[in-house]
UniProtKB/TrEMBL annotation:
InterPro entries: F-box-like_dom_sf, F-box_AtFBL13-like, F-box_dom, FBD, FBL13/AtMIF1-like, LRR_dom_sf, LRR_FXL15/At3g58940/PEG3-like
Positions of the UniProt region annotated as Disordered: 1-24
Designated gene of the protein: LOC104715596
Residue ranges of every copy of the F-box domain listed in the record: 31-67
Stored Gene3D superfamilies: 1.20.1280.50, Ribonuclease Inhibitor
Bias type Polar residues, positions: 1-12
Protein name as it appears in the record: F-box/FBD/LRR-repeat protein At3g52680-like
Length: 465
């Protein structure tokens, strides 16, 4: 295999190969330099090309006639075939393929084939069975059909090589009994259907060495599900769930080795219980709301970097929890009463060193600001005295009195602050009347008597609106 530093050379050689094939098609005869390369290098080059183009190289010369059969990567897309040809082409290619180990097998079924054949389960079953017989290491199954195809889970018990499994869209995950996939390290379940909660439990518990799990749900049938995730070696977990949950469903996570966690869109579930995550390095909690009787933020006290895009009105906050390891906090300022959540976090994070406030949306949501005011706390949070060194506020709303008060408070109390940066949206030609007001804001903030005499204040204009 080529070293990673030779990627540019690989692209160059691939380009030469494609040019030679083009010239042969035009009837131009030139010295064949590519064919003189070692077979290992040629197979590596072919592995970077789509399977359809790899097979096309068989007409180049006698040397290339059977070379494609040893390429360890196969990729099929029904969009590139006529309906009656796709099944034949996939089957013929798989039966002719001779590579002892199949590094990856990607199957995308959509368009005309999925409409006419409804993603025939027999075809899918045969193709995946052949892939498992070839000791496949990465399997990606992307099906777009009017009905779901039941994935042949029974094959997992016979696989000792599968390391990555990615299932997308019209796939039904039905696992009536525990499976055994000791080699699986990465599992992505994106917009698939699950028969029941037991299928989820059996699938994940059957992957004892799982290190990365991605769950994406935007729509599913009306089935109450509890995602039980017990994974002793899981390091990265990403859950994006825009399905309106049920009080009888939710997430239960037990991952003692977890380092990176993302929760997004999880809403209206009966539970979202996160247990036993002592090694957590980074957590992102976005748009999570109305979880019954649970304390999501309070279960993350071991985290070192935390991003919050939630409202304290929609999620419970652990008033008695302390984030002893938290050094980096990023918070969104577009949620209701975000400033109260900020103070709760500052009071609970004694070692915080970096604070970033941001509004990544182009238009600020004013809902929640009317009738609500910033109330300066009586006691200064401990982190502002000896630890906070960096304060960044992107898309700072200079016309907001509330944001001005929050910024002033931090500047007046952060004794070890080294840098404070504020970015604002640009003023367009039709808004020249606002220029004077903005200049006034800059002077006011610059004139604040800062607790840190070494604090460097910077004002930046956003380059993207």
């Amino acid at each position: 295999m080529l070293a990673s530093g030779n990627s540019k050379n690989l692209k160059s050689v691939t380009g030469i190969m494609e040019q030679e094939q083009h010239e042969r098609n035009r009837g131009v005869v030139k010295e064949d330099l590519i064919s003189e390369l070692p077979e290992e290098l040629l197979l590596h080059i072919l592995s970077s090309l789509p399977t359809k183009r790899v097979i096309a190289t068989s007409v180049l010369s006698k040397r290339w006639r059977s070379l494609w059969k040893m390429v360890p990567k196969l990729e099929f897309n029904s969009n590139f075939h006529y309906t009656h040809q796709f099944s034949e082409n996939v089957g013929r290619t798989l039966f002719s393929h001779k590579a002892p180990v199949l590094e990856s097998f990607h199957l995308k079924v959509s368009g005309r084939y999925s409409q006419s054949r409804a993603c025939d389960e027999i075809d899918i079953g045969v193709w995946t069975e052949i892939a498992f017989e070839r000791h496949v290491r990465e399997l990606v199954l992307e099906l777009c059909s009017e009905r779901c195809v039941r994935f042949p889970i029974s094959m997992f018990s016979f696989s000792t090589t599968l390391e990555t499994l990615i299932l997308k869209y019209s796939v039904l995950v039905d696992v009536p009994s525990p499976v055994c996939m000791k080699s699986l390290r990465t599992l992505h379940l994106e917009s698939v259907d699950f028969k029941d909660s037991e299928s989820i439990r059996n699938l994940i518990s059957g992957c004892p060495n799982l290190e990365e799990l991605v769950i994406y749900q935007c729509y599913r049938k009306d089935v109450v599900l509890t995602f039980t995730i017990v994974a002793p070696f899981l390091k990265r977990l990403v859950i994006t769930d825009y399905f309106v949950g049920s009080e009888n469903g939710g997430y239960v996570i037990n991952a003692p080795s977890l380092k990176y966690l993302t929760l997004k869109g999880v809403s209206h579930y009966g539970c979202c219980l996160i247990e036993n995550v002592p090694m957590l390095v980074e957590a992102k909690i976005r748009e999570v709301s109305y979880i019954a009787n649970e304390n999501i933020v309070g279960s993350l006290t071991s985290v070192k970097r935390l991003f919050l895009d939630v409202s304290p009105l929609e999620i419970k906050f652990p008033t008695d929890s302390i984030f002893y390891q938290l050094v980096h906090l990023k918070m969104h300022t577009r949620r209701e009463e975000w400033w109260n959540l900020l103070m709760l976090m500052l009071n609970s994070s004694p070692k915080l060193q970096f604070l970033k406030l941001t509004d990544e949306k182009r238009k600020f949501r004013k809902r929640g600001l009317v009738g609500r005011k910033w109330i300066e706390p009586k006691n200064v949070p401990e982190c502002l005295l000896p630890h906070l060194k960096m304060f960044v506020w992107t898309r700072y709303r200079w016309e907001s009195e509330l944001e001005k008060e929050v910024a002033t408070y931090i500047l007046k109390n952060a004794r070890q602050l080294k840098n404070a940066s504020f970015s604002r949206r640009p003023i367009h030609s039709k808004e020249h009347h606002k220029l004077e007001e903005r200049c006034k804001m800059v002077k006011e903030l610059d004139g604040v008597v800062r607790a840190s005499s070494s604090c460097h204040l910077v004002f930046v204009v956003d380059s993207v609106e």
